[in-house]
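Bug report (template v2)

What were you trying to do?
Predict the complex of my protein with flavin mononucleotide.

What happened?
Run completed; filing so the output is reviewed.

Input:
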Amino acid sequence: MLRAARPDRTARRAGASGSGPRTVGPVSATDQLAARLRQRKDRVATRIHTVADARRLARRRVPKPVWDYLEGGAGTERTVRANIAEVEAVTFRPRIGRSGPFGPDLSTTVLGQAVSMPMLVSPIGFTRMMDPRGDVAGAAAAAAADTVFTLSSMSGHTLAEVCDAAGRAPWFQLYFLGGRPGAEQLVERARRAGCPALVVTLDTQTPGNRERDLRLGLSPPLQVNPTTARRMAPHALAHPWWLADLVADRFSLDLVHSLGLRVDGRELNAGESLMHWLGNPATFEDFGWIREQFGGPVVAKGVITGDDARRAVDHGAAAVVVSNHGGRQLDPLPATMPALVEVLDAVGDEVEVYVDGGFRRGADVVKAVALGARAAMVGRAWAYGLAAAGEPGVGRVLRILRDDIDRTMRLLGVSSLAELDPTMVTRPGG
Ligand SMILES: Cc1cc2nc3c(=O)[nH]c(=O)nc-3n(C[C@H](O)[C@H](O)[C@H](O)COP(=O)(O)O)c2cc1C
């Protein structure tokens, strides 16, 4: 149960002994609360030993509308389940009895960028309502793990905040907020921030049919207004730690990338930016101007068939992400593991292919790489860590996944990613 804020113990000890860093002036009640919340997250993170643990703790910490947004899928949620089932169904064919490699090399490159492991972080929208540090936490944890973080257009944090926290620029995931003119401004912001790649999500012509959101009458963007407050109240009060975080963050729920976009000489508000986007979602025909303006690699996300992968590459995509949006858009769709094989057949020799959807273990990542993916990406896995325990939670999840990739490679008898190939896995159906 959340108690009234008490002075941070470290600050009190330092004050009592007269040594250590001194606090200049009174510590505000909000700072004290933030310090207590941070300590609690550190403690909760130590209870995460698997992604499933993070999921359980996240479900406990956030209110139902937030949980439903994070966990839910479209329609029957068959695609969500299929992603996980198809990843799990792949089994290994190890090479035993070889000299055991000590410390396999997990490092690789993605679009020329060195990363410490073949696992990247997928873009997740509205993370600031899961934890006040949202994408700042995700980006900092990904930088600490030395891997790529992809910042969603639907973030509550600016590119500058994310770059500052991580000490490096993220990949930027582009939705056409504000339509084509707004998208041009977002591409320019990403270019100026030094983002190494732009990820264009192509499967979101309209929001998917997320029936969980309909039942409670609450879906992001959550707004501070009387209707939302009345509907949220019973859920929020039952999750005091989450509520305290929101208070300490002063209810900062704005979608910052949708703000400040100018169309027809006028600045759009967030609602208008979203309406312009849904009226003009990205198409393959946009890849030409995006590439030209951005000047760096453009990645097509949401590819689920070999035909569309071909089209993406023909339109200049430097890489594709095989993805069904974690089962949150069109439902049912093929699970991403079989789709990965189809896409690799179509374009695997020409561009890097990444895959996301249902990856919950390091061993899952190794399966995808063995099949031919350059890297796998995790969506809900990192968001569970965030929702369970903020930045320490994300760090913990990424470390657990990394350790499992390492362990799996040792047990397979390979010392580098280059040694993984399709003969080392079996998929149902061949
Ligand atoms: C809560 C949530 C929000 C998401 N928001 C975005 C987004 O803003 N942009 C995007 O391209 N994909 C978004 N995705 C899809 C993820 O990038 C990724 O494709 C998906 O989560 C992978 O499946 P997994 O969650 O099973 O790992 C979102 C997914 C979730 C679960």
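What did the reviewer find?
Residues 1-23 have pLDDT under 50 and may be disordered. The first helix runs from residue 9 to 17.
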